[in-house]
Amino acid sequence: MTPGSTQPGRSRAWVIGAGLAGLSAAVRLTGLGWSVTVFEAAGQPGGRCRSFHDSALDRLIDNGNHLLLSGNRSAMALLRDIGAPDPLIEVAPARLPFVDLGSGERWTLRPNRGPLPWWVCAPGRRVPDTRLADYAAAFGLRRAGDRTVAELFDGPPGSARRRLYERFWEPMAVAVLNTEAADGAARLLWPVMAEILFRGETAFRPCIARTGLSESFADPAVAWLEARGGRFRPGVRVRSVSFGDAAVSALNAGGETVAVAPGEPVVSAVPPAACAALFPDVATPAEYRPIVNLHYVVGDGVALPGGLPLLGLIGGTAQWLFLRGDVLSVTISAGVAEAALPHDRLAGTVWQEIRRATGASGPVPPCRVITEKRATIAQTPAQDRLRPGARTRWRNLYLAGDWTDTGLPATIEGAIRSGETAANAIGRPPAAG
Predict the structure, then answer these.
(1) pTM (two decimals)
(2) Which of 402-430 are b and which e, b meaning 16 or more Cβ less than 10 Å from the residue's Cβ?
(3) Could you give the C-alpha distances from 245 to 83, 249, 251, 427, in angstroms and in order?
(4) Average pLDDT, stretch 23-30?
(5) Which of 47, 55, 144, 312 could pair covalently with 186 via S-S, beta carbons 3.0-4.6 A apart?
(6) Does the domain spanning 51-91+206-212+288-377 belong to CATH 3.40.220.10?
(7) Closest CA to 110 of 122, 101, 99
C-alpha cells in the first residue's frame, strides 16, 4: 500500500474525477489549506466540459456547447480564482435574440439594470404578443412543488399565456433542465430566477468560452492546482474503495492501493452511475437525458443577428446556435429522438433550419455531430428527489457533481457549486501539532 502524494506540513485530501465539480472542489480545498490529489480516468481534465482538436474539421471544438450567464456566481468566482486569461465572450449589455422558424418573427429579450424587472412591461424588450400578467406566474416557481414546467406555465391554444410558454418558458426549461418541459421539475427554475433574472441586466449577460471550454476552465484550474503543490493524475481510474471504521481507508487507483489516513477527506466527483459502482450504498438518480451538438465549419458565410455570438431558435429541431470564429455550433437539449438519427440526416435537417434562421446558403458544410447520451440526469420531480447531498454516512466521504442536491439545476454552475459545497462541508484541515 502506497501513501500517495505528500506535501510536508500539509494535510492531504483526495478528489475522484476532474470534471468541473472535482476541479472546483480541488481548488476550494487547496485554498482551505489541504494538499490535494485529483484522479481522473480520462487522459484530460474537464469531463463533459472540455474542448479538443477535431481532425476531420481541423478546428478546436467543444465536446458540448455551454451557455453561461454573468450572474453564475460560482462559475465566475472559479474563473477569477484560477486566473483564467480572458476566458469568456460576454454579451454586454445583455441581449438574447430569438427567431421563430415557423412564422419568421424575430425578437430580442433585453432586461434592464437593477432588481426590479420593468423590462417585462416594455413590449419592445419582452416576447412579442404576451401580456404583463403572464410573467407574474414566475413567482409560482418558488412553491412549485412537484409540478412540471408545462403544468405551471402552459395555457390554452392561441392564448398569450401559451405564446409566452412556447417562446420563453419552454425553451428556457429545456436549455436549463435538459428535460422536456412536460416532464421537467419547475422548482429547479426558481434559483435561475432568483440568481439571474431578479438581479437585472448585469446578471443576465450571455457568456460563451472565448477559445474553448478546456482553455477557459479545466486547463487553468489544473495549472493553478499544480502551481500550489497539488497533483493531477490523468489516466488513473479509481476502480474500488476500501472502508474501515466507517470511513474510506484506501483507494484502488490505477492498479495501486493508495492509503487514506484517518481524517483525510475524499470527494467523489464522478457521474451517478460511476458513483453507485464505487459506493453501492449511495442512492443516485438513474434516469438521464442526452444532448446532441453539431459543429459546422461555415467560413464567412454565416452571421448571426446584430453580430451577436448566439441565437435561440423556436419551433425547430435545433434550439441554440453559437458562432465562434468560423465554427457554427448547434445545441439540441433533451434530444432523445435526434440522438438516434443518422448523423448525415440530422446535419442536413439542422442545416436547413440554419439557412432559414440566418439567410445562409449552399449545401451542408463539413459537420461533426457529438452525442452525449447521458449528458445530465433527467431533471424530473421524481429524479430530483433522489439527488443526494454532499455528506454521506462515511465520515470522510463527500459527494460532488451537477447531479447532487445543490438546489440548482444540473448545469455548469451546478457542477461548480457542488464542488464548493463539498469542500466547505470539509472545511479547513486540523491545525498541526
Answers:
(1) 0.96
(2) bbbbbebbbbbbbbbbbbbbbbebbeebe
(3) 40, 8, 15, 21
(4) 98
(5) 144
(6) no
(7) 122
Asked whether 325 and 296 are in contact (CB, 8 A), the reply is no
**Cα 94 to Cα 143: distance, rounded to the nearest angstrom:** 28
Alpha helices in 124-195 (DSSP H): 132-135, 149-153, 160-164, 170-177, 190-195
Report the alpha-carbon distance of residue 278 to residue 230 in Å, rounded.
24
Amino acid letter, residue 140:
G
End-to-end CA distance of the chain: 26
pLDDT, tens digit, for every residue of 356-370? 999 999 999 999 999
Q: 256: which strand partners?
A: 253
288-321 burial: b if 16+ Cβ within 10 Å, else e: bbbbbbbbbbbeeebebbeebbbbbbbebbbbbb
In sequence order, what are the residues at sequence separation of 6 or more whose Cβ sits closer than 8 angstroms to the Cβ of residue 389? 399, 404, 405
Residue type, 202: T
- 292 near 346, Cβ under 8 Å? yes
pLDDT, position 432:
57
Q: Is the pLDDT of residue 8 over 70?
A: no
At 234-257, the pLDDT tens digits run: 999 999 999 999 999 999 999 999
Between CA 228 and CA 27 the distance in angstroms is: 10
Q: Is 43 exposed, middle or buried (0-12, 13-18, 19+ CB in 10 A)?
A: exposed
CATH architecture of 12-41+235-286+380-426: 3-Layer(bba) Sandwich (3.50)
Query: What's the whole-number average pLDDT of the chain?
Result: 96
pLDDT at position 431, please? 77
* Alpha helices (runs of H) in 253-398, residue ranges in sequence order: 272-278, 343-358, 381-384
Q: Which amino acid is at 401?
A: G
Q: How far is residue 286's CA from residue 174's CA, in Å, rounded to a whole number?
A: 19
Bridge partners for 368 per DSSP: 295
Q: Identify the pLDDT of residue 433.
A: 46
Measure the CA–CA gap between 333 and 186, rounded to whole angstroms: 17
How many residues would you count in the chain? Answer: 433
